[in-house]
């Protein structure tokens, strides 16, 4: 899917996952990978109490550790698509 088309689909979505005070631990990464494989497109909200505060760092972590690509970052919300 093209990034522009994916972004348009993501606009109407509500976040399926919320990352809180435990951050992007192994359990959260496994859940993200599982849901991404099942759904193909995932919207993730990083809550203010999460240890990861820099959204560029969060995007890099997700790009490295799950088989997906961050196509959009808006505020504290990411749109992740399966590769």
Summarize the topology.
Blueprint (H helix, E strand, L loop, with lengths): L2 H9 L5 E3 L6 H14 L1 E6 L8 H11 L2 E7 L2 E6 L1
Parallel strand pairs: 1-2
Antiparallel strand pairs: 2-4, 3-4
Please provide a brief summary of the model:
It is built from 3 helices and 4 strands. It is of the alpha+beta class.
Written account of the structure:
The structure is a single chain. The protein has helices at 3-11, 26-39, 55-65; strands spanning 17-19, 41-46, 68-74, 77-82. The chain is of the alpha+beta class and 83 residues long. It has one domain (3-82): Translation Initiation Factor IF3, CATH 3.30.110. Strands 1-2-4-3 form a 4-stranded mixed β-sheet, sandwiched between helices. Strand 1 (17-19), helix 2 and strand 2 form a beta-alpha-beta unit. The radius of gyration is 12 Å and the shape is globular.
List keywords for this structure.
Translation Initiation Factor IF3; globular; 83 residues; 41% helix; alpha+beta; single chain; 3 helices; four-stranded mixed β-sheet
Distance between the termini: 9 Å
* Tally of helical segments: 3
Q: Count all strands and give the number.
A: 4
Tally of domains = 1
Strand order of the largest sheet: 1-2-4-3
**CATH homology superfamily name:** YhbY-like
* Uncertain residue ranges: none
Look at the structure and give the CATH class. Answer: Alpha Beta
Helices and strands, in order, run as: HEHEHEE
Strand content: 25-35%
CATH fold category name? Translation Initiation Factor IF3
The helix/strand class is: alpha+beta
Rg (C-alpha, Å): 12 Å
